[in-house]
C-alpha cells in the first residue's frame, strides 16, 4: 500500500534549509526512506544530492504549508548512507561555529567527492555483477564435475574386467584432479567477493616499547582518561610523544576500536606516517584535503568496512567515522587547524573534541608549547594534564644566542641578512659536517619594493598590500600578491615616476642566494610554499636533508615544524621581528610556539645544539623565554594574565563579524549600522562589541573589509548570547539586503 510521506533534507547550501522546506514522496511504509539516506532533490532549479535528516516530517510539512513542499527526484541508493553520528557532528559544528548544517555537510561531502562516489558506486555495481557471474560459473563447473565423478565411481563399482577398471580409475583420478582445481578456483573467486583481510588478523597489533618516563606518562594519561575528559600532554620536543600516541592507538585497535590522529600538515608528517606504517600497516589510511576525490572515496570505503587508523589533517574529522576509540591531536596549538574560509570556519582541535563526545572516544592533545586555550582548559578542570619533560635521547636544551641586528649594523657586524656571528657558527658546523636549518618567515625574493626616488611602495592593484618580488627559474622576475595571488610582470621601474625600484628586506629566495654566495661549496635547499608547489618536491627535499645530502635548508615555518633530523646542530631564525610583531594580541603566543618548535629541530640525538635568534628587539619577552632568562610557564601565565585583564580569549569567546563590499562608502555604512544593531541586540551586559575597524589588510581582490569584534563572557549566558548575535546578524542582512556580505568567524586565530 502506497502513501505520501514527508521528509526533511540537509542540502549543501548556506541557508538553514531544513525547517523552511519539506519534501514528499509516495511509497510503501515498509520501505520508508530512513535518516541518513541520500536523496536527489531540486533547490531552486538546481539539482542536489541531500541527506535525509528527518524521516517522518508530516508535522513540519503541515507547518510550512503546501507551497513549500516539493517532491523528491528519487533516492540515491547507490551512495552510502550517512550515519546518525555524522549528522550529529554537523549539527554540533554548525551550532558552535554559527553556520548552516548544510555548509558543514558540504565540507564533509564536497561535490567532487559526491560525483566520484556516484562513479565508484556504478563501477562497484558492475564489478560485483561480474564477480557474481564468475562465482556462478565456477560453482556450475564444480557441480558438473561432482556429478561426473559420482557417475564414474558408480561405473567403477559395477565394472568387472581388469582392463575396464584400470581405464575407469585413470579417468576417475583425472576428474578428481579437475574437481580439486575447480574447487580452488571457486574459493578464489568467492574470496575476491568477500573483500580482503579477515578482521581478526587486523586486531592483532602491538604498540612500541617505551622508556620509563614515557611509560609513566602513558599511565598518567590512562588514569586521567578514565574521567572522560580530554588530556593535554605537554611534552618537550624530542620526548617521544609519538610513541605514546601509538601505544594508546595499539590499545584502542586491539579492543576493536578505531583511531584518528590529526596533524596540522601532512607533508611535514611523513616521518610519523612511516612510523605508523611500521606498526600498523593494515590499518593506516592517510587523508588530507589535497587528496583527490577518488582517494577520499577510497578512504571512506575503507573505514566503513575495516578497523582503521586514519592519519589526517583537520578535514579528516568529517570522514564517516564509526566506533572511534581514540582521537589524537598532535601539535594541538598549531594555527593550521583552523579553517579560515569558507564556512564552516572550524578548528580541527575543537571539532575533534565534539567528534569524540559523540563516539565516547578518548582525546589526547599533544604539544611542546600548548595553546593558551588548552592551558586555560586544564586550569579550569575541563582537561587533564600530563607533563613529559625528559627527552628520549637525553639531549640537553640547545643553547640560545640572541643577536641584536640593530647593534650589529652599527658595528659593521652584518653581511646582508647575516650577522658575522651567525656566519662563523655556520662555517663551524659545515667544517664539522653538521647540518643547519634557517628560518625566515617571508617567502619571495623580496617581500616589499620601494621606488628609490618617490618612495612609493609597489602595491597590488586589487589589494591594499605590497607586492613581493619572486625570481623565476628562467631569471625573470614576477610581482606576486600574497593575498589574492595575482601575478604582475616585473619591470624594475616605478609605475608613478619611472625611477628604479629597490628591495626592502629579504625573503627566503634571497636568503638562499646569500647563503650560496657566502658558502659556495655547501649544498643548499629551500622549502617554502613556492618551492613545495611542485609535486613531491617537499618530500624529496626532506628526504635528502635527512639523509645528510643537503648541508643547509632554508625555509619558512615549514622547516620549523615536526621534522626529526638527526644531523642538525644549528638552527637560526633571521629577522625574528616578523614572527613576533604582527599587531595582533596572539602574535607573541604564536611566535613563542613557532620558535620553541623550531629550536626543537636541533640537537635531537644527544649532542647539544645551538639556536641563534637574529632580531632587532633583543629585549622581547619571547627571546628572554627562549634563552632561559624567563621560564616558559611563567611567560605563558603572563600572557594569560594579560588576556584576562583585557577580557580576551581564552577568558572570553571571540567572534569576528566580517563585512565585505566593493563599494567602500556603502561598506562603512553597513558596518556601522551592523555594529549599532549588535549593541542593541539584547546580548547580556558582559558582551563587548568593538569596532567596526579595518583589518591590517583592508582590501583583498577588490573587496573592502571591515571587522567587528564581539567578545562574549564564558558564563551561562554564552549560548543565548551566541544565538542572539547570529539572529541579529541574519535579520540585519535580510533587512539591509546584504546577505552573503557578512560572515561570522568564531574563535578566530
Ligand atoms: P616529539 O614528537 O615529542 O618531539 P618524537 O616522537 O619525534 O618526539 O621522538 C623523538 C625521537 O626519539 C624520534 O627519533 C623517535 O624515534 C625517538 N624515540 C622516542 N621514543 C622512542 C622509543 N620509545 N623507542 C625508540 N625511539 C624513540
Ligand atoms: Zn592582490
Task: Give the arrangement of secondary structure elements.
Blueprint: E1 3-10, E2 22-27, E3 38-43, E4 46-54, H1 58-64, E5 69-71, E6 74-75, H2 84-97, H3 101-108, H4 111-158, H5 162-194, H6 199-203, H7 212-225, E7 231-235, H8 241-254, E8 258-262, H9 270-279, E9 284-287, H10 293-305, E10 309-312, E11 324-330, H11 348-359, E12 362-367, H12 372-379, E13 384-388, E14 399-404, H13 405-410, E15 414-415, E16 418-419, H14 420-431, E17 435-439, E18 448-451, E19 468-471, E20 477-480, E21 487-489, E22 501-504, H15 508-518, E23 524-527, H16 537-546, E24 552-555, E25 568-573, H17 577-580, H18 587-599, E26 610-615, H19 621-626, H20 632-646, E27 652-661, H21 664-679, E28 688-693, E29 699-700, E30 703-713, H22 718-735, E31 742-746
Parallel strand pairs: 2-5, 7-12, 7-13, 8-10, 8-11, 9-10, 11-12, 14-26, 17-24, 17-25, 23-24, 25-26
Antiparallel strand pairs: 1-2, 1-4, 3-4, 3-6, 15-16, 18-22, 19-20, 20-21, 27-30, 27-31, 28-30, 29-30
Helix pairs in contact: 2-3, 2-11, 4-5, 4-10, 7-8
Bound molecules: adenosine-5'-diphosphate and zinc ion.
Amino acid at each position: 500500500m502506497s502513501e505520501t510521506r514527508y521528509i526533511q533534507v540537509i542540502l549543501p547550501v548556506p541557508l538553514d534549509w531544513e525547517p523552511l522546506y519539506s519534501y514528499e514522496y509516495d511509497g510503501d511504509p515498509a520501505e520508508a526512506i530512513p535518516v541518513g539516506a541520500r536523496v536527489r532533490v531540486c533547490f531552486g532549479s538546481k539539482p542536489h544530492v541531500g541527506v535525509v535528516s528527518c524521516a517522518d516530517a508530516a508535522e513540519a510539512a503541515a507547518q510550512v504549508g503546501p507551497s513549500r513542499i516539493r517532491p523528491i527526484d528519487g533516492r540515491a541508493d547507490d551512495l552510502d548512507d550517512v550515519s546518525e553520528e555524522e549528522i550529529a557532528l554537523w549539527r554540533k559544528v554548525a551550532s558552535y561555529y554559527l553556520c548552516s548544517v548544510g555548509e558543514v555537510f558540504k565540507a564533509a561531502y564536497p561535490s567532487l567527492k559526491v560525483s566520484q562516489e556516484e562513479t565508484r558506486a556504478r563501477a562497484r555495481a558492475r564489478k560485483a555483477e561480474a564477480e557474481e557471474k564468475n562465482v556462478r560459473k565456477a560453482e556450475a563447473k564444480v557441480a558438473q564435475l561432482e556429478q561426473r565423478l559420482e557417475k564414474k565411481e558408480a561405473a567403477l563399482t559395477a565394472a568387472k574386467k581388469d582392463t575396464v577398471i584400470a581405464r575407469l580409475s585413470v579417468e576417475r583420478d583425472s576428474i578428481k584432479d579437475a574437481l580439486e582445481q575447480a574447487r580452488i578456483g571457486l574459493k578464489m573467486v568467492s574470496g575476491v567477493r568477500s573483500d580482503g583481510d579477515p578482521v581478526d588478523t587486523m586486531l592483532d597489533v602491538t604498540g612500541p616499547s617505551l622508556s620509563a618516563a614515557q611509560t609513566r606518562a602513558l599511565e598518567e594519561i590512562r588514569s586521567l582518561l578514565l574521567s572522560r575528559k580530554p588530556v593535554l600532554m605537554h611534552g618537550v620536543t624530542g620526548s617521544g610523544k609519538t610513541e605514546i600516541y601509538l601505544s594508546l592507538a595499539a590499545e584502542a585497535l586491539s579492543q576493536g576500536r578505531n583511531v584518528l590522529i590529526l596533524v596540522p600538515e601532512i607533508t611535514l608528517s611523513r616521518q610519523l606516517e612511516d612510523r605508523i606504517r611500521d606498526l600498523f600497516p593494515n590499518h593506516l589510511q592517510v587523508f588530507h584535503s589535497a587528496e583527490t576525490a577518488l582517494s577520499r572515496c577510497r578512504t571512506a570505503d575503507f573505514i566503513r568496512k575495516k578497523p582503521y587508523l586514519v592519519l589526517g589533517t583537520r578535514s579528516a574529522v568529517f570522514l564517516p567515522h564509526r566506533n572511534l576509540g581514540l582521537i589524537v591531536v598532535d601539535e594541538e596549538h598549531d594555527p593550521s587547524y583552523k579553517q579560515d574560509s569558507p564556512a564552516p570556519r572550524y578548528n580541527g582541535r575543537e571539532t575533534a573534541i565534539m567528534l569524540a563526545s559523540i563516539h565516547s572516544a578518548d582525546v589526547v592533545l599533544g604539544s611542546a608549547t600548548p595553546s593558551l586555550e588548552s592551558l586555560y582548559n586544564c586550569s579550569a578542570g575541563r582537561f587533564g594534564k600530563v607533563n613529559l619533560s625528559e627527552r628520549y635521547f637525553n639531549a640537553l636544551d640547545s643553547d640560545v644566542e640572541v643577536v641584536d641586528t640593530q647593534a650589529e649594523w652599527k658595528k659593521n657586524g652584518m653581511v646582508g641578512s647575516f650577522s658575522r656571528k651567525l656566519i662563523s657558527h655556520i662555517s663551524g658546523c659545515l667544517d664539522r659536517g653538521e647540518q643547519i636549518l634557517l628560518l625566515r618567515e617571508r617567502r619571495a625574493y623580496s617581500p616589499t619594493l620601494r621606488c628609490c626616488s618617490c618612495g612609493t611602495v609597489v602595491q597590488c592593484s586589487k589589494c591594499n598590500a605590497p607586492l613581493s618580488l619572486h625570481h623565476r627559474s628562467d631569471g625573470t622576475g614576477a610581482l606576486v600578491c600574497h593575498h589574492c595571488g595575482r601575478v604582475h610582470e616585473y619591470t624594475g621601474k616605478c609605475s608613478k615616476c619611472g625611477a628604479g625600484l629597490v628591495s626592502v628586506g629579504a625573503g627566503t629566495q634571497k636568503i638562499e642566494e646569500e647563503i650560496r654566495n657566502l658558502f659556495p661549496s655547501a649544498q643548499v635547499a629551500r622549502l617554502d610554499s613556492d618551492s613545495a608547489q611542485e609535486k613531491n618536491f617537499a618530500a624529496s627535499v626532506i628526504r635528502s636533508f635527512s639523509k645528510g645530502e643537503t648541508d643547509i635548508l632554508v625555509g619558512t615555518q615549514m622547516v620549523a615544524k615536526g621534522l626529526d633530523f638527526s644531523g642538525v646542530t644549528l638552527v637560526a631564525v633571521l629577522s625574528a621581528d616578523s614572527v613576533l610583531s604582527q599587531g595582533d594580541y596572539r602574535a607573541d603566543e604564536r611566535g613563542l610556539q613557532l620558535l620553541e618548535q623550531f629550536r626543537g629541530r636541533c640537537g635531537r640525538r644527544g649532542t647539544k645544539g645551538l639556536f641563534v635568534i637574529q632580531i632587532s628587539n633583543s629585549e622581547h619577552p619571547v627571546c628572554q623565554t627562549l634563552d632561559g632568562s624567563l621560564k616558559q610557564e611563567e611567560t605563558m601565565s603572563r600572557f594569560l594574565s594579560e588576556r584576562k585583564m583585557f577580557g580576551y580569549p581564552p577568558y572570553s569567546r571571540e567572534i569576528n563579524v566580517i563585512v565585505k563590499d566593493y563599494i567602500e562608502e556603502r561598506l562603512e555604512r553597513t558596518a556601522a549600522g551592523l555594529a549599532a544593531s549588535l549593541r542593541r541586540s539584547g546580548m547580556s551586559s558582559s558582551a563587548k562589541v568593538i569596532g567596526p575597524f579595518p583589518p591590517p589588510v583592508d582590501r583583498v581582490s577588490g573587496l573592502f573589509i571591515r571587522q567587528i569584534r564581539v567578545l562574549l563572557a564564558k558564563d551561562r549566558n554564552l549560548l543565548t548570547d551566541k544565538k542572539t548575535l547570529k539572529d541579529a546578524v541574519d535579520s540585519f542582512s535580510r533587512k539591509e539586503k546584504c546577505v552573503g556580505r557578512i560572515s561570522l568567524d568564531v574563535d578566530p586565530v
